[in-house]
Amino acid sequence: MEIKINHKRQPQGSGLIAVILVLAFMLTVGVAVLTVTSSGPKVSATMRYQEEAFNAAEAGFDAARMTMEDSLASGTWGSFGDHFLKSPDGVDIPFINMNLATPNPIYFRRLTDEQILQLLDQNRDGQADNPLQVIFFEEPFVYDRNGNLDGRYRYTVFIIDDEAGFSTTDPTDFLMVCIGVVRSGPNVSDRILATCRLEIEIELPEL
Questions:
Q1: Residue 174 pLDDT exceeds 60
Q2: How many percent of the chain have pLDDT more than 70?
Q3: What are the distances in angstroms from CA 1 to CA 4, 7?
């Protein structure tokens, strides 16, 4: 008796499919690794810019505090109320006509830092439109290697009557707002890389 043995043949092309699948997997892993590797420096740069913006806002607070103390001591300032930010009209008022159902769209807390800077300098000349209502505007404070002020790092500081728009006002406290900015270049028209806003409540000592 003759026994015939039939060998099952592997379908043609199956090896090629396996190679393609392995290559596709390796390509996916390679792209993922490349993406993570390339995004690392960007994340680090963003964190560095954010930290520099925070440092700028802190520097603005320190400078503004000393300026206000000196101005009051020398009589240059008669009161804080004369220097509260009130323009554009309504920037310090959270609700229109004290109606909680109608939020004020230009209230400073509903604006981004960049929008606030644009509102304070609507003609884009690098100077605050109402300088008496702004303690510092786009003030550089860091020196470069040549001993010149580096315009990439700036701060803006103003004070707000935190009871504005309500029926009663507490004259013993107010809000100081410090905005630190890091730009891509030395001009105020250069692209903003990062901002940081500090809001600090100041309470006046009882007389």
A1: yes
A2: 78
A3: 10, 19
Q: What is the mean pLDDT of residues 112-127?
A: 94
- Band (35; pLDDT cuts 50, 70, 90): low
179 C-beta neighbours (distance < 10 Å), count: 26
Cis peptide before 94 (omega within 30 of 0): no
Q: Which residues pair with 182 in a beta bridge?
A: 153, 194
Q: Diameter of the chain by CA atoms?
A: 124
- For residue 100, what are the contacts with CB-CB under 8 A and spacing of at least 6? none
Distance CA(176)–CA(101), nearest Å, equals: 27
For 75, the token pair is: 């009589």
Q: What is the pLDDT of residue 80?
A: 83
Q: Distance between CA 111 and CA 133 in Å, rounded?
A: 18
Confidence label for 207 from pLDDT (cuts 50, 70 and 90): very low
Residue found under tokens 């490349």: 34
What value does the mean pLDDT of the chain take?
85
Other CB atoms within a 10 A radius of the CB of residue 128 amount to: 20
- The answer to whether residues 123 and 73 touch, using CB atoms and an 8 Å cutoff, is no
Half-sphere exposure (CA, 13 Å, Cβ side) for 37? 6
Phi, psi of 6 (to 5 degrees): -95, 120
> Secondary structure of the chain: what % helix, strand, coil (to 5)?
40, 20, 40
CA separation, residue 128 to residues 124, 139, 141 (Å): 9, 11, 17
